[in-house]
Records
---
Amino acid sequence: MTTETIISITNTPFLKELVRQIRAQDSMGVYRSWSDELILKPLILTKEQKRKISVEGDVEPITQLRITAFYRAIATLVEQETGLLCQVVINLSHEGFGWALVFSGHLLVVSKTLRDAQRFGYESMEKLAAEGEKLTKSAVELATKYREVTNA
């Protein structure tokens, strides 16, 4: 991956918002001097790296925060696009199974089953951006199509 590719990828609306969400969770200011690429790097895991992560133990708190930041980024972009308030609910067992839900009013705009959350991540920055953009686009379409349900 070239530097040019990294720069264009981190300029996607989803990745920009994801970085913003991760920085917002940094109460100690650790990420203040980090580049966007460095902040997103823990979300990039090859298949081999994923295999090395045990699913036997509890999900680490930092991994839970990354999952939450991912779905909050989607919710924030939906809010910006539609003007509707969104809420994120992450229900995750200590074993790494659960759901990630994004609601707007009474409408469920994103519903993802989480499995092996200990291994949450994507093979590349492109795949991370693509998944975030895909879920955001789908959520915006649902919120726009069923706006009356979001206002109920």
---
Amino acid sequence: MNRVKVDLPDQFLFKTEIPVRITDLNYGGHVGNDAMLSLVHEARVQFFMSEGFKSELDIMGLGVIMADVAMQFKGEGFYGNVFEVYVTVGGLSSSGFDLYYKFIDQESRREILKVKTGMVLFDYKNRKIAALPEELKKRWQLPHPESRLISNE
């Protein structure tokens, strides 16, 4: 069986902490895959807010749509765990970008999840894909300026 593999960058632009809620657990007693995707969404919203954006519907006047997602599970999460979540930007294109996420259990330091989401900019008023603003290209250009990087070790 071929497995999904998510290759993460070495350093990230943003770090947050997200506690596991009782509602995140599935019948197996650990965080379910659907809940993990919800936690990815939470991390993404917090990242955008840290970048000065009010919501996913107002990234310099445009919204974002998740075009694709790849999730590589590395461990289990349980009620009471706190995940350190690292987020960064890569794969800039004419109308979108990739976001990379790394989830680590704060206490055990175990890697729990690696994720890549492909984000497309969308003009909700005109109902069409929009171009990546030049300001975002400059802000998120690779390699990222050293002053913005967070080590995930």
---
Amino acid sequence: MAKIVVINGTPSLVSRINAVIEYTEADLQGRGFTVERINIAELPAEDLIHTKFESEAIVKANGLVAEADAVIVVSPVYKASFTGVLKTFLDLIPQKGLAGKIVLPLFMGGSLAHLLSIDYALKPVLSVLGARHILGGVFAVDSQAVRNDQGVVELADELKLRLNSVLEELADETAHKAARKAGEQA
């Protein structure tokens, strides 16, 4: 089956956006996709900051991207854009490293004032990396992911509906791409 990699651009592994990632991964795995995750916060900071392309961790992460049929790019919005941590990793993806990949952006911000951050901040960078098939994505507002009394983040029904819609599109596009690829190799 097709492979999907999630690039988690949050600097905090306890961020509420992780609930969006977990929801996404569970949905796609339930559809039979192989899903891998790159938590950029777990990559060596020195390798990211000093752009160590040859670093074992960076080579491994880039290998996951290279093998993927689709890439999901996830980030909270800071200062009207995606995180600097995400940018440091995107800078390490080889030129045209997203060519031929279906890309789905998932962002979360404090208000709808940052709704266009996917279009104006992320999509130009993805395009430079060769991405030509970028889905519309989902922008969630912080208030749509609330921590309950037990500390579990619950996603609003409206957010789940939007995620379901874009994940359906991603699944269909990725399955068609994988079928074409398999036909070409046969």
---
Amino acid sequence: MAKGPVATSSDDELPFAIEEPVAADERSFFGGRSQKPSVPHAKSALPASLAGQEHYHGHRERLRDRFREQGDTALADYEILELLLFRLIPRRDTKPIAKALIERFGSLSGVFGAPAALLTEVKGVGETVALDLKLISTVAQRTLKSELRNKQVLSSWSSVIEYCHAAMAHETREQFRILFLDKRNVLIADEVQGRGTVDHTPVYPREVVKRALELSATAMILVHNHPSGDPTPSRADMDMTKVIIDAAKALDITVHDHIIIGKDGHVSLKGLKLI
């Protein structure tokens, strides 16, 4: 993260810096096709039970059978994605699309974390399919967040990390998030306080503490992401954290930790004994 301005006690507080053409949606395309008379050909001579069958139909059934009988461990990531795309794109071979998505974004989580605009750059993915993929991602994030409700966050640390990773690891810009806790360390609010560029986000310590007072929070967990993928804290990260800790301490508000999220892992400043 880029180094940001130092704190100031003036009224105008400065922030700390935290460190082939687009394809149409296949569903609307096929759903909107007009039925025009066509010249009879060989396929029309097939039995009714085979007419309209495409080469990938048998593959879909075999893949479903493997999932049904052996579970998800029997399938590669692209095959799991392929199973999902069966429903989103019902009249097209989705195996090449699933493989292209994994290749472009690196992993299954990378696909679901990618912005919708980038998803549509993959041949075969239209706007509606991209939005459906983002909807599934949102459901997953909400499910993880629900695991934190009415629980003491410090005793559910793995759930905190899983939720923050799902919410932030694949963001293309830095964002600064705060988990506000009550005196029992139960989650009161989860708020994104700022969004920045690829390598920094402005953070105003005074606004952080002000929001904690508005929510009657007695503790906080600070979280931000590094789009580069490397969660190593910068000097600006550590300096900013110290300023927030000092400002919060004066008002009896505890900062339990500052977590930095990367694509492949996370760093806890408390775990590194930096706070």
